[in-house]
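Demo today. Your pick:
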Amino acid sequence: MKKPRKSELWQAGSFILCAAVAWTQADRVDGSEFIGGRVTGPVFSLFESGIFVFVLAIVLTFIYRRVGAVTGIVSSLLCFPFYLYFTAPGPFRSVFRGIYSVPLQSSFVWDNGMIGGMLTLAIAAFASVRSFLAPLYKEMPARTHPA
């Protein structure tokens, strides 16, 4: 078996971090009215799917690094609406109309856990894009400047 490269370890580490943070945030709303809502229910289902896709991306990173990177980007996109709902409920509700049982308190809410989750998604997306594009940079010829 080959030794994992540094980029694979960074990519897998970012996915592990995303999955761990997402798991803790999912526990905050588990068993609440949020899961059964007409709009928020599908958002939570996407979020749970994103957690499991992150686990799949961790495994794929060590087998096919670029496939793992694409899977990580997809899982980041699946988890993003959940974090967006809790940090920017006003804009979220203006885009996704529906009947919400909880009245809107503020358009934007600073929640350290949700902001941290969004930050981990950004780190995972950055690691994934970098890992996906790395082979393309190796194939490009070096530029030469006339003297």
In short: The radius of gyration is 18 Å. The CA atoms of residues 90 and 106 lie 7 Å apart. DSSP finds five helices and no strands in the chain.
